[in-house]
Amino acid sequence: MANQPSKRGFASMDEEKQREIASKGGKAGGGDHATHEQHVAAGKQSSGGTHEQHVKAGQQSHKNT
């Protein structure tokens, strides 16, 4: 069994299926997500507050998208 090729994973898929997946370009599933730059800009616009308040607000904003 150790010499048998795996039937799992990307490399074992047929070429058409690989092309289909690769054409998506690594896009995340599940909708639009903010970029790192957008998060940094939002942080700079912050109106103060504690770190804990910022974390809570960030978690809440991800629930709403």
Summarize the entry for a quick read.
With 65 residues, the protein is mostly helical.
What's the total helix number?
A: 3
- Percentage of residues assigned to helices: 40-55%
Report low-confidence residues grouped into runs of 5 or more: none
Quote the beta fraction.
under 5%
What's the gyration radius in Å?
20 Å
Mean pLDDT: 74
The biggest beta sheet is recorded as: none
The secondary structure category is mainly alpha
Order of helices and strands: HHH
The total strand number stands at 0
Distance between the termini: 46 Å
The protein's oligomeric status is single chain
Using the alpha-carbon principal axes, give the shape.
Answer: elongated
Task: Report what the structure shows.
It is built from 3 helices and no strands. The longest helix has 13 residues. The chain is elongated, with a radius of gyration of 20 Å.
